[in-house]
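Q: Give me the 3D complex with beta-D-glucopyranose.
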Amino acid sequence: MKDYIIHDEWNIIEEGFVPELNRVSESIFSLGNGRMGQRANFEEQYSGDSLQGNYIAGVYYPDKTRVGWWKNGYPEYFAKVLNASNWIGINIWIDGIALDLAKAKVSDFKRVLNMKEGYLERSFTATLENGNQVEVKSTRFCSIVDDQTGAIEYSIKAKNFSAPIKIEPFIDFDVVNEDSNYDEKFWNALDQSASNGRAWVKASTKKTNFVVCSAMSYSIIHQGKELTLNSELVEKEKYASNIIESVIKEGETLTVYKYAANISSQNHDENKLVEVAEDEISKISTKGFANLKKEQAEAWKSKWTEADIVIKGDVAAQQGIRFNIFQLYQTYTGEDPRLNIGPKGFTGEKYGGSTYWDTEAYCLPFYMSTADSHVARNLLVYRYNHLQKAIENAEKLGFTNGAALYPMVTMNGEECHNEWEITFEEIHRNGAIAYAIYDYARYTGDQAYLAEYGLEVLIGISRFWAQRVNWSEAKQKYVMLGVTGPNEYENNVNNNWYTNYIASWTMKYTLDALDYVKVNHSSDYDRVLNKVNFDLDSETGKWNDVIDKMYFPYDEEKEVYLQQDGFLDKVLMPVDELDGEDRPINQNWSWDRILRSCFIKQADVLQGLYFFEDDFSIDEIKRNFEFYEPMTVHESSLSPCVHSILASKLGMEEKAYEMYLRTARLDLDDYNNDTEDGCHTTSMAGTWMAVIKGFGGMVIKDGKLHLNPFLPSKWEGYSFKINFRDIVLKVDITKDNVEITNESENDLSLILKGEDTLISGKGKKELAT
Ligand code: BGC
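A: Here is the predicted complex, encoded as structure tokens.
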């Protein structure tokens, strides 16, 4: 745990330069716009420790799998979003000495991530080896208005000297991924060009052949006037720049404005990339930095208008939640159904920027409630578009007849995870994809989605479950053998309750969806059934049989669902009884010891109770919560939020808050000592859920919005906004009352603290707490 970020409601602030913290800060201060993103690397050269990271969404490399012991069915590769061109770079030499914070004496260092307006600022004073002192201030952003572009303002002031200065704005594609399996470079050089004031580099990814052109233009202002010096043009393989030589006098300031565009063949004709990049550069440089920054601030303002959560009386909590919302929007904007949400967003290499079940199980609710419904819909369409690959993935494992197994990790629909206990066994992920369809349809009311896309996916997944179970003569039930549940601290178990439950639920939901589409969208019904070659009687007959006879491990005495068949054979003890040195167990224990222990990585039975809470009584949820939570080590950042939501539901307010705190500032305070790898984007969405679904008590039942808010005792008040079926509601909770404002024209009837309540368009409702 670290505590170096200065608390502030709208800004993330670091003061003082601590090289040992640089990688952590590079993650925290990351920028992104859904289409591209980058770690907070420095513009000027830096020879100290740093993880260079510039990413372009969807531009990935299939890095050949590296395993000790190959197993049939393993994916050939692990997909990673690549470190792409360094487009922020501006090398500076003063009197022949490079400005490099690893070599200079640094003072007054400050980094500020302005979340309100969406930019990163850095300032410092550097004393070079020869005593020359410069004051530097840089501001940059990835534009959310024009998501292929970014801009930088970089000014240098000579504090105590007059000397020659050399400035080199550049584009560099000669980059590496630290996580490369075979120390390979992933980009092939194609072409580069430098002309006065401009440069571009074109490169293509090995194997996947994405072509990207990164281009830049710049202008230099010296004492208020644009410098028109000729520059030295540099063109090398994968590199292009201009070197400008001038003189800076004591007290003078020189400012570089650098404009950049990253244009990829994903979105443009491969032969026109340079042309498009040049046009983009012209467009943004004509607008100028100040206007672009203003546009950026306005665009962020409208995002905050939709999604802000205000917490009164707790600045640390306020900063934490805004940081989470900010990063979620930097990662995914929902405009392109080919894109998704990596568990680390654009903030590092870990998890390869690929898609996990995290999206459906954790991230979807945030986008559903804070943005127009097409944003969440695009997340679902992403999986619809991968259905054929999911079918092929299941075929590789021996399944037939259109059974679909969605991958644990993917970029293009193909599985690329390669630990057998996860790749082959963590099949519960398939259920989360079905659940997301249900969650989306119940929240948005967009049932037509089922007809157009959803049903086909549901049939594929249900077919998988129907083949994955087997009949147990001994139990006279259907069982599911050899699985790994969400708790990855148990592998190859039989009858993971959560997996069995979500499997059976999916089949039920698919049957309901079939009925619904048949009645309401008959032509789609015929189209889909034809397309998938559906044998109505035999397939639905099998599903009904599995639903009726599925085995769910349960202990009559304790009256709890069992995580898996053998759970009660374990030595059961609470986490509290472990010694401090044991934790986290994944760093201190052998894997073998972890697997035999009762300790749970993340919500498993409780994940099911959270998803399907309507199927269980409060007493049941409580009993299971009290049984499992004490044995849970929460060593996945996906865990505390589910516990927080359930604790809120159970009225365990302190527990709910304790669990909330574990993720609210997870990255800002580097709780798990791993923020240097990147930020925990999934848990950011989880934190949002802990506030809205937990403290705010938001659920949807029978098409109605329910709110049941309480105020955590550490806070003076909080407010949030949700967009429910195109009605924007502002919910304001203070010590004395709950006030709900309907910001839309249409009336909304909801259940507020258990009471039927009508809030007319533009109206308000107050209720004493
Ligand atoms: C969790 C998985 C999750 C993955 C990516 C793992 O540690 O156990 O549930 O999908 O991280 O966030």
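A quick observation: The pocket of beta-D-glucopyranose is lined by residues 343, 351, 356-358, 486, 488, 601-602, 636, 638, 682 (CB under 6 Å).
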